Write a sequence for this structure.
């Protein structure tokens, strides 16, 4: 279930971009990564012998989670863009810090610890 949360966190990072070129670059990189992860998730769901309905529900949540993170972040930033620059900078920095922290946590706690065992 944690991989659903990771996809939303990835969306937070993509939603922070301010230029169209950077957005497309990050979106393409995440799309390539997500294809590989989707294959791995699909094989694990099949190996868990879930019903077709259960697999489709989980894959649907998987597919919408990153775009949901993008929409949430862009919505927050759009709402705050009409306010003060200080508030916008503070919230932007907070979201960037959370995204960075999530990626570092996944790298050092989940991936590397699993490889050491």
């Amino acid at each position: 279930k944690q991989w659903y949360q990771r996809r939303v966190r990835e969306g937070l990072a993509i939603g922070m971009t301010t230029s169209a070129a950077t957005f497309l670059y990050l979106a393409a990189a995440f799309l390539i990564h997500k294809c590989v992860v989707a294959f791995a998730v699909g094989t694990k769901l099949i190996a868990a012998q879930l019903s077709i309905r259960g697999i489709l529900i989980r894959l649907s949540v998987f597919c919408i989670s990153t775009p949901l993170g993008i929409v949430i972040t862009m919505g927050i930033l759009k709402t705050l863009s009409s306010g003060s620059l200080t508030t916008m900078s503070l919230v932007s920095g907070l979201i960037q810090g959370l995204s960075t922290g999530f990626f570092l946590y996944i790298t050092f706690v989940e991936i590397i610890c699993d490889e050491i065992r």
In short: The chain is about 90% helix and 0% strand. The chain has a mean pLDDT of 80.
